[in-house]
Amino acid sequence: MKISVYSKTGKEAGEMTLPAGIFDVKMNADLVHQVLISQTANKRQVSAHTQNRSEVRGGGKKPWQQKGTGRARHGSTRSPIWKGGGVSGGPRNDKNYSKDIPVKMRRKALFMVLSEKVKNNLLVVMDEFDTQKAKTKDMAKTITSLPIKTNSRLVVSQNADKKVFLMARNIARTGVLEARNLNVADLLNYKYVLVSKDGIKDIENTFASKK
Description:
CATH superfamily of the largest domain: Ribosomal protein L4/L1
Largest sheet: 6 strands, mixed
CATH topology of the largest domain: Ribosomal Protein L4, Chain: A
Number of helices: 7
Order of helices and strands: EEHHHEHEHEHEH
Strand content: 5-15%
C-alpha cells in the first residue's frame, strides 16, 4: 500500500509503501470497542469514598437499654439509619474497574484503527519534522500547509524525540505521542494522524516485530 509523502511546505515529496500488516487490516468494530473500554477503564481514578459502619467514629456504647423505654431497639449509633452513621451501599475507593486485554488483541485493534485512518485519508506522512530550531510556530506553519481539514490531529514522533513534543505541545487541539506509545484511545480521540517516515518505521519496529 502506497501513500503520498509531504514536505514541511505542504507539497508532495514522493511516495512510500506502508506495511500491509499494520495499515491494511480488516476492521472489527467489536474488538476496537472492547480495547477502548478496557483502556479507559484502566485509566479510571476512583476517588469517591464513603465510610461504612465499621469506619465511622463513635457508637461504641448502646444508645439505650434494650427493653422498657418504648423506643425501637438499637445497638449502635454507627448504624446507617442514624445521622452520622455509616453509609450502606455507597461508593468505595477500593473498587477495581481495570480490565485485562491480551496484548495480541490490543495490537490488532491498534492496526485496525490505523488502517481505517489510511482508508479515510486521515493519515498524513511527512518526509521529516524540521527540529533544528524546535519552534512551535514552525510546527504550526507546517500543519496549516498540510492537507488537514480540521484542527484535531495527533502528531506521532519518533521514539525518544523530545523536540517534536516541545514544538507541538502548545498547539490547540493537537496531541503528541511517541511511536512506541501509540494506542487506540488517542487515535480515536483525534481525527488526523501526522507522522514522519521514520515514525512509520518506529511503529513497525515497535509493534509488528513482536510476536
